[in-house]
Amino acid sequence: MQTLTALKALHPEIRADFTIEQHWERYTQAEHGIWRTLYERQMQILPGRAADEFLDGLKKLKLVAERIPNFARLSDDLQRLTGWRIVAVPSLVPDEIFFDHLAHRRFPAGRFIRKPEQLDYIEEPDVFHDVFGHAPMLVHPVFADYMEAYGKGGMRALTEFHALKNLARLYWYTVEFGLIETAKGLRIYGSGIVSSHAETLYALENPKPNRIRFELERVMRTEYRIDDFQESYFVIPSFDRLFDETYKDFAALYRTLQAGPTYRPGEVLASDALAAPKAA
Ligand code: HBI
Ligand code: FE
Fold first, then answer.
1. Considering only the top CATH level, what class is 4-257?
2. Sheet bearing 179-182, strands edge to edge
3. Could you tell me the distance, in angstroms and rounded to a whole number, from the CA of residue 134 to the centre of ligand 2?
4. CA separation for the pair 241, 56 (Å, rounded)
5. Which end of the chain is more exposed for a tag (fewer CB within 10 A), N or C?
6. Pairing state of beta strands 179-182 and 185-188?
7. Mean pLDDT over residues 49-60, rounded?
8. 98: CA distance to ligand 1 center in Å?
9. DSSP strands (E only) in 43-148
10. How remote is the CA of residue 269 from the centroid of ligand 2, in Å?
């Protein structure tokens, strides 16, 4: 991640909150084509694998294969639905900036799109991950509130409790890589999964990873990998339950977490309730 001063060299118009103009008119046909490739590839496998809430959000936002979304128009739709907006940023922004945006119902999204040789893996979140992956869940009222609460809690975790690590794990294992148990079976909703072709199949159907029933303290004690598929996923029973379990003051929990174990990404505990992979 770069400082504001360093970013100014590349983006002279960058604001103090790290936002920039999307300049939608500057995308080339080749860039829209990469979006289309990624979009079509995901839409072949997401029905029956992604949570209905995600697919419903995609539809309500009118995200289509043909072009990279225009953030201003997308934000007008999203704002009408749940009060969220999408703002363009160069790439990863500092934690306090990220939390402040979320706390105000603004989702910071990378405006660049990956190169054709990076279809399957990128290090920093691009517009496909950030918009295709994250925006649809922001249409869901409960999830929309959960994200705002994360932004507000993030600021306190950073400044008051020095517990960013714990809270970042909650974000990682829900917003980015969450699974949900539904009446129709196991589904994905995490943006890191729904925006990845290979991980969509892996997270749901591969026998290798652990699928562990969500438990807040367990999740906050669990490290994660950023360089490969997850070794463990956590399964929530519903978005209402996720919100109920996390919409509280974490002060006492952070104190508890200071003592006791930290778990490796692939570790399975005797107390874990494991779900079976989805039948392929
Ligand atoms: N910046 N643009 C962007 N996107 C993120 O997902 C993001 C970020 N900055 C910090 C951050 N995530 C995480 O470190 C926090 O959730 C902890
Ligand atoms: Fe993300």
1. mainly alpha
2. 185-188, 179-182, 232-236, 210-213
3. 7
4. 20
5. C
6. antiparallel
7. 98
8. 6
9. 85-89, 106-110
10. 27
pLDDT on residue 61: 98
What is the chain's Cα-based Rg? Answer: 18
> Which amino acid is residue 101, in one-letter code?
H
Cβ(278)–Cβ(49) under 8 Å?
yes
Q: Distance between CA 121 and CA 273 in Å, rounded?
A: 31
Residue ranges with strand state E in 92-169: 106-110
**pLDDT tens digit sequence for 72-83:** 999 999 999 999
Task: Kindly state the percentage of the chain with pLDDT values over 90.
Answer: 95
Is 88 touching ligand 1 by the criterion CB < 6 Å? no
Grade residue 67 by pLDDT with cuts at 50, 70 and 90.
very high
Residue 279's pLDDT band (cuts 50, 70, 90): confident
* Closest ligand relative to 164 C-alpha: 1
Q: For residue 122, give the nearest of 147, 77, 92 by alpha carbon.
A: 92
Q: What share of the chain is helix, strand, coil (3-state, %, to 5)?
A: 50, 10, 40
In sequence order, what are the residues at sequence separation of 6 or more whose Cβ sits closer than 8 angstroms to the Cβ of residue 277? 186, 204, 205, 206, 207, 211
What type of residue sits at position 43? M
pLDDT of residue 121: 85
Distance CA 138, CA 155 (A): 20
Which whole number is the average pLDDT over 226-243?
Answer: 96
